[in-house]
Amino acid sequence: MWSAESSQSMRISTVSVNKSLSIAKANQSEYCTVKSSEFHGRITINTTEISMKELEKKYQYLKAGGHYIPQDCKARNRVSISVG
Fold first, then answer.
1. C-alpha to C-alpha distance for 68 and 49, rounded to whole angstroms
2. In angstroms, what CA-CA distances link 52 with 29, 56, 59, 74, 82?
3. Distance CA 17, CA 11 (A)
4. 20, 21, 37, 50 — which has fewest CB within 10 A?
5. What are residue 53's phi and psi, to 5 degrees?
6. How far apart are CA 62 and CA 60, in angstroms?
7. pLDDT tens by residue, 20-61
8. In the chain, where are the structural domains located?
9. Residues in domain Galactosyltransferase N-terminal (predicted)?
10. In the chain, alpha helices (H)
11. In sequence order, what DSSP letters do the residues of 33-47 get, joined into one string?
12. Mean pLDDT of the chain, nearest integer
């Protein structure tokens, strides 16, 4: 059974998540332009070890879980990359 305190905490976290999503959507009024020069086909994978700090610095624009949301436009497509 949920106590009143835990139920209220859950509600607060849900509101904060929804608020951040609506702010991101409000900034995206136009679709992003297609940048065909960024499509490369097969690429050579760099297998050099890199520290977690270096990765975090290099990809600081990524959200939790590796998600990326353009700041000034609405993405035309969604992409999923699976490595197995």
1. 23
2. 34, 6, 10, 30, 20
3. 10
4. 37
5. -65, -40
6. 5
7. 454 455 455 688 887 766 667 787 888 999 999 998 999 888
8. 4-66
9. 32-82
10. 4-26, 52-58
11. PP-GGG--SS-PPP-
12. 70
Given its phi and psi angles, is residue 41 left (phi above 0), alpha (psi -120 to 50 degrees) or beta?
left
Under 8 Å between Cβ of 67 and 21: no
Q: Nearest 5 degrees, angle CA 45-CA 78-CA 30?
A: 120
Handedness of CA 57, 62, 63, 66 (dihedral sign): negative
What does the pLDDT read at residue 44?
84
- Which residue is associated with the tokens 């959200």? 63
What pLDDT sits at residue 54? 93
Q: How far apart are CA 7 and CA 3, in angstroms?
A: 6
Q: Give the span between the Cα atoms of 19 and 31, in whole angstroms.
A: 21
